[in-house]
């Protein structure tokens, strides 16, 4: 898996439109969109694996990742400003700006933690190799847990935005803000975890990139 530094390096080469806000506080400099388009073209296109049974309980999330902090609490610490937490790592003060809709929130309990590529979408994103479908269908429980708690795919967002998104891919849902950054991170995540995209998803991502400066 790529490190967070490598992820940031890739994102720094992906296109952003003028005025876009970053999806997280990771710096991403405006650049030519060629790398993003190249990465998208390299993703395998395959129909969604709708025959794979998705059970959220199979994707153990909010595991302890640092001290007493679980993955959710750590995301809140990392993506907020002026965050203070109690001795159990529960944020008790801070300010968060939801990247999907630009809403400022000061009460952590009113925030959701979104998986950039939703767990159900990951489960459906099998790919075809040598005529055989592979991918998350073959993942071990540990591999599913690793994805579910990966800080690079967690986004602090308003409950309204997160629940509007649900488990939809970019063919069916895009954020109100920073669509270029969102598309870049979606492509990077699918590349890093060797996941397929379906044709409609590919076309939607290509459409976003075509409008990025």
Described by strand count, sense and barrel closure, the largest sheet is: 3 strands, antiparallel
Mean pLDDT: 86
Number of helices: 8
Instruction: List unreliable stretches of 5+ residues.
Output: 1-31
Tally of extended strands? 9
Distance between the termini: 29 Å
**Could you tell me the strand content as a percent range?**
15-25%
- Report strand order across the widest sheet: 3-4-5
**Principal-axes shape call:** globular
Bin the helical content. 25-40%
- Nearest-angstrom radius of gyration? 17 Å
Protein structure class = alpha+beta
What string, H for helix and E for strand, traces the elements in order? HHEEHEEEEHEEHEHHH
* Oligomer kind: single chain
SSE topology sketch:
Elements lengths: L3 H9 L21 H9 L21 E3 L2 E2 H9 L1 E5 L5 E7 L6 E2 L5 E5 L3 H6 L2 E3 L2 E3 L6 H8 L5 E5 H7 L13 H14 L6 H12 L3
Antiparallel strand pairs: 1-2, 3-4, 4-5, 6-9, 7-8
């Amino acid at each position: 898996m790529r490190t967070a530094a490598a992820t940031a390096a890739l994102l720094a080469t992906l296109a952003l439109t003028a005025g876009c806000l970053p999806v997280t506080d990771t710096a991403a400099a405006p650049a030519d969109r060629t790398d993003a388009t190249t990465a998208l073209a390299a993703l395998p296109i395959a129909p969604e694996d709708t025959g794979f049974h998705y059970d959220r309980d199979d994707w153990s999330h909010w595991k302890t990742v640092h001290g007493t902090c679980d993955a959710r609490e750590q995301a809140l610490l990392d993506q907020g400003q002026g965050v203070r937490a109690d001795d159990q790592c529960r944020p008790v003060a801070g300010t968060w700006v939801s990247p999907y809709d630009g809403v400022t929130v000061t009460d952590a309990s009113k925030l959701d933690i979104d998986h950039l590529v939703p767990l159900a979408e990951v489960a459906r994103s099998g790919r075809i190799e040598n005529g055989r479908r592979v991918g998350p269908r073959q993942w071990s429980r540990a591999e599913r847990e690793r994805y579910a708690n990966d800080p690079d795919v967690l986004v602090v967002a308003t409950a309204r935005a997160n629940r509007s998104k649900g488990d939809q891919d970019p063919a069916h849902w895009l954020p109100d803000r920073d669509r270029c950054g969102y598309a870049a991170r979606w492509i990077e995540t699918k590349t890093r975890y060797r996941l397929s995209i379906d044709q409609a998803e590919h076309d939607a991502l290509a459409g976003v990139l075509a409008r990025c400066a």
